[in-house]
């Protein structure tokens, strides 16, 4: 995806990210730009791995941006810690890691080694607004 990251916009009654005692946690972020979901559908049916990876990268960028906004800038992020990637996918889909690598790669592209994370990738039946991927990020901040 060539879309640039834009300010995160909460889609409900929650904060995009919260910082407390040196820890920042993002809400679940989907592949949106300016509040508009750019990718819809199930991975393995409506999207192949390349497009799903792009969606995961955008969602991870949104999670990182939400944390940066809450912390006062990207330079306030000491390091990313944990990334959870949820995929709305068919029951037969088993390449979760290949898609989640798009999210992990996005964080490393932005922050280098500070963007390296431990990660969980899980398949789910559906996600908000028909999104194919949702990402949550936890980071240490100063």
Can you put this structure into words, describing what you see?
The structure is a single chain. It is built from 2 helices and 7 strands; from the N terminus they run ββββαβαββ. It has helices at residues 49-71, 96-111; strands at 17-20, 23-26, 32-33, 36-37, 77-88, 118-124, 133-141. It is globular. It is 27% helix and 28% strand. It has a single domain, classed as RutC-like (60s Ribosomal Protein L30, Chain: A). Helix 1 packs across helix 2. By secondary structure, the protein is of the alpha+beta class. Residues 9-121 form the Endoribonuclease L-PSP/chorismate mutase-like domain. It holds the Pfam family YjgF_endoribonc. This is RidA family protein.
How would you concisely characterize the structure shown here?
This is RidA family protein. The protein has 142 residues and is of the alpha+beta class.
Characterize the largest beta sheet: strand count, sense, and whether it forms a barrel.
5 strands, mixed
Q: Would you identify the CATH architecture?
A: 2-Layer Sandwich
Number of strands: 7
Distance between the termini: 31 Å
Order of strands across the widest beta sheet?
Answer: 1-2-7-5-6
Question: Counting H and I runs of at least 4 residues, what is the number of helices?
Answer: 2
Radius of gyration: 14 Å
Tally of distinct domains: 1
The coarse silhouette is globular
* Structural classification: alpha+beta
Low-confidence stretches: none
CATH C-level: Alpha Beta
Strand content: 25-35%
Order of helices and strands: EEEEHEHEE
Tell me the quaternary state. Answer: single chain
**Mean pLDDT across all residues, rounded?**
94
Give the proportion of residues in helices: 25-40%
What is the CATH topology?
A: 60s Ribosomal Protein L30, Chain: A
Q: Name the CATH homologous superfamily.
A: RutC-like
Organism: Prauserella endophytica
InterPro entries: Endoribo_LPSP/chorism_mut-like, RutC-like_sf
Pfam families: YjgF_endoribonc
Domain Endoribonuclease L-PSP/chorismate mutase-like: 9-121
